[in-house]
């Protein structure tokens, strides 16, 4: 399991909770913030972005990952997700996150009282499909 210090967890939860205020969620009114902890200690955030064409809604986790990739990052140690109830990522986001490694700490935080749980991505996505299943893959 990725080791996180209490300070790192606090910084991540704060960043995820703060960016949640930027969420664009006029349809569901379910506001989510996500924060990724980079290997260099930087934090990259994202919030959910909804659309009147519901299937186009973007989850906070995928926005954060896409922002990190666009900023030149390729790996990170942890993600915190702040929401009402401290929900775990949807199936699509579990798959999206898994592209960058299964040894990821997933911190799910309830914005009401700050209570959080720490999971590991491979626990949230057992028997995952990944690049090793593709034809021509070696190793
Ligand atoms: O882990 C989650 C779960 C849901 N949502 C968003 C998607 C949609 O905008 C709204 C309701 O599903 O919440 C996230 O961003 N992350
Ligand atoms: Zn999702």
Automatic annotation (TrEMBL):
The catalytic residues are 61
Q: Which gene encodes it?
A: cdd
Q: Which InterPro entries match?
A: APOBEC/CMP_deaminase_Zn-bd, CMP_dCMP_dom, Cyt/Deoxycyt_deaminase, Cyt_deam_tetra, Cytidine_deaminase-like
Cofactors that this protein relies on: Zn(2+)
Protein's name in the database: Cytidine deaminase
Residues at which Zn(2+) binds: 59, 90, 93
Q: Which NCBIfam families match?
A: cyt_deam_tetra, PRK05578.1
Q: Which organism is it from?
A: Novipirellula herctigrandis
Secretion signal span: none
